Amino acid sequence: MAGICNPQKLLETFCVDNCVTSVENEEQLKRFMFESQEILSPAKFNLRGWEHTNVSAGEKAVHRIFDTIGFTCPVTLQPKILLQECWKLRVTWDAELPSLISRKFEKWKEQLRYLNDLEITRCLSNELSLNSESYLHLFCDASKKDYSSCIFLRTEIDGIIACQLVQARARVVPIKATTKPRLKLLAYTIGSRLLNTTKIDLGLDYVPVCCWSDSVSALWIKGKENWGTLVNNRVQKIRRLTNSEDWQHIAGILNPAELPSRSCYSEELTKSLWWEGPSWLKKPRKEWPLSEACPDFEITNSKRLYWPLAKVIKLIPSRDGRVRVVEVSTASGSLLRPIQRLITNQNLTKLSGSKLE
């Protein structure tokens, strides 16, 4: 019987100093462990600390959450959100947690037991046969607290349609406030990267792609290149990794990325079966809920607005003493203008290291 491990395959399985791969059964697992150690032993590289998911159907155990694919990302996102809330409240490491955050964490921890009964089919080899019609579907979404992307593989063989989660990512939004459309754009960006690596790693360059979003205003991807630096750079990145014509609009209630974008507890996750994909994806393509909605390009492609040169003539402090509004004088008259930060000439002198005359 031919070996299942060779130097080239072993090279492709390494991420930094960790060897990560998948095999069909327990017998192949034992062979891979033995053959990989034989290949690396002449160079004195000792592969050790082997860990693997339990391949026996009769044994179910979750000792800790190690989910590189992202099946449980709606759940694992919860403690990250709570941690960010602690940062915002400036809670020190040795301080007692606020009661509200503590209760949320205890609930999250207590519900982890539901993951013990979670069974997910991960093998894709059966779906990728030569006579199957396959599609990769990327879904993106964002909320005030986090943004997410997930990829599903849809296959059809002899009229039988199957759908399965391939990869998912969810991240906490930056602490610095930003707009909802820009958060959507962040989701598009990580989604495009995830889609690109998935196609490369699984050898699916030939598989057609559909990219879905429930936001119309954030679909800059199909617009012209008339954006600010941050938006333009990300749009160009997305266009390099995906085809702009593959992006489609979908109603938010039909978007499976909505669950990880708002996060949830383990009980809700196990009941949702979201890794099986939305039910409409298992229907014929002509029944997919394609939306005719499109961005208002007259607005999104319009020229950027520029504030006229103005001189601050009056500071208007708030009740706490901080200045958030100023009165400015322009060529056309005076007006009130909200500000985020005020830098005086004295501070400018310190920053530039020169003296103002």
Automatic annotation (TrEMBL):
Q: Which residues form the DUF5641 domain?
A: 301-343
Per its UniProt entry, which superkingdom is the organism in? Eukaryota
Question: What PANTHER family is this protein classified in?
Answer: PHD-TYPE DOMAIN-CONTAINING PROTEIN
Protein's name in the database: DUF5641 domain-containing protein
Give the organism the record lists.
Larinioides sclopetarius
